[in-house]
């Protein structure tokens, strides 16, 4: 009985090589290939930022990957639309200009992540514009928005800049310090608040930016958007899912803050590192995501029964 290989590496190489040969036959293909090379050069920088932070228990990587998955899913759902789009001469010229500028300037902007991300985004826009025209961005607004956000993976920096612009300095940190202090007093701990510090007779803990719960709220809100799309909810329901996700994450951040504070003051540095580091972050994120998922699923089932009744 003959057997077939599930994955033939030689066949894959042959297909890729044939595709490359076909691509370089046209000026458009050659320019797309050069633009893609810039993306491959930027990719290790992009991954090199997200991977270490994932190991430290940060959750920004989940937000970035979730947005990319949603974008890819929406693009795949409507992939037939691409065959109906064709770039005009003006759109193609504009796209080529953006690609060339990005390719030429990129080697001189390797000193930081943000200029590389900006130029790669410029190239992506140019590639889409020169292939399908400017109409493609109107046809795929949600994927365009998500891809644009994830090109620069430091979502926390973007959210912090916007937050600081609209909210008083350390406003959320003070609220979380107050909520954590009140909660610990309620269960019998001698905690007092001093600005952004939760103080005990034995020591104090600072509620910094990374502990104010905003990053988790944004991530869970993105999960709410994903579930809204998954359950095919209308805009109103999707907004409610996102708002509920952010509120749940903010409320859940208080017991997490209490646990980290107690670990630091009473249990010693090793327990503090555990709950403040990778494993503690993953445990907390896993519990929160699981709870939110089952809450949303229960709400969807209840809504479905009401509609059928």
TrEMBL record:
Annotated localization: Cell membrane
Highest taxon above the source species: Bacteria
Record has Transmembrane helix as a keyword: yes
Pfam hit, one: Exosortase_EpsH
Molecular function as annotated in GO: peptidase activity
Keyword Amino-acid biosynthesis: no
Keyword annotations of the record: Cell membrane, Hydrolase, Membrane, Protease, Transmembrane, Transmembrane helix
Transmembrane intervals: 31-52, 58-76, 96-113, 119-137, 144-163, 207-231, 238-267, 279-296
GO biological process, alphabetically ordered: proteolysis
Recorded topology in the membrane: Multi-pass membrane protein
GO cellular component: plasma membrane
Protein name: Cyanoexosortase C
Protein species of origin: Adonisia turfae CCMR0081
Classification of source organism: Bacteria, Bacillati, Cyanobacteriota, Adonisia, Adonisia turfae
